[in-house]
Amino acid sequence: MKKHEQKFFRLSDEGVSILKERWKTLSSRYTKDESRSETIFNLLVQMYTEKHRSYHNLSHIDWLLALSDSMKDEIGDYDAIRFAVWFHDAVYNTRRNDNEEKSAEMSAASLEELAVPVVTASAVREMILATKHHHCENLSEDAKLFLDLDLSILGASEEVYRAYSEAIRKEYSWVPRFLYRRSRKKILDDFLRRERIFLTEDMRARFDLQARRNIKREIESLSS
């Protein structure tokens, strides 16, 4: 395990306990069935702690929930955003290309069990599916903000971003080096060519400049 990954992308037992309380607070708004709520939480924890996850784990959930808290006044359906955070990477297999669809299916089934209204569950599904390509066509404002939250790591400090890039490479360790470099550069180039990496003004102001610096630096590293 790289030092950076160990420092930034691991959640303590206390952190997991805090996440559990946050989940209970959220789910209890819709169901009084604590057993059912806890079953879903335990399944999410099981999935997000799979061994192959170096970045897309519980620390990612913790990061996004904290960031969404700071943006609460900008969010229309705050519960939909929070549920989307919990479920958007629930299914994560780097050898498959249907993770978003499977995660969306899981969210729909779980939210139905929790008696979450259809309108909120549909918003969650929209947000999760939007993360497949991170394009903004025909998305709600909440969905645009959710995409920005999910991409916020691009605008993290240089040290945190370096740890992120190392963690992503570890998740794709099965890919030969030359193929990984080519694919990763293509993804990063796509973001760099965009007029707007972040779709909302607040997130653009907070993260865009640093994101472009980080991306350029990683592309240079991949090219060396």
List the helices and strands and how they pair.
Elements: H1 3-8, H2 13-27, H3 34-48, H4 58-70, H5 78-87, H6 99-113, H7 118-130, H8 141-151, H9 158-171, H10 177-193, H11 201-223
- Distance between the first and last residues' Cα: 23 Å
Helix content: 55-70%
- Tell me the number of strands: 0
What is the approximate shape?
Answer: globular
Instruction: Write out the CATH superfamily name.
Output: Hypothetical protein af1432
Oligomerization state of this entry?
single chain
The amount of beta strand, in percent, is under 5%
Largest sheet data: none
The CATH architecture is Orthogonal Bundle
Total domain modules? 1
Query: For this structure, what is the CATH class?
Result: Mainly Alpha
Q: Note the run of SSEs as H and E.
A: HHHHHHHHHHH
Quick check: average pLDDT?
Answer: 95
CATH overall fold name: Hypothetical protein af1432
Based on secondary structure, the structural category is mainly alpha
Question: How many H/I helical runs?
Answer: 11
Rg for CA atoms: 17 Å
Low-confidence stretches: 1-5
Fill in the keyword field for this structure.
Hypothetical protein af1432; 224 residues
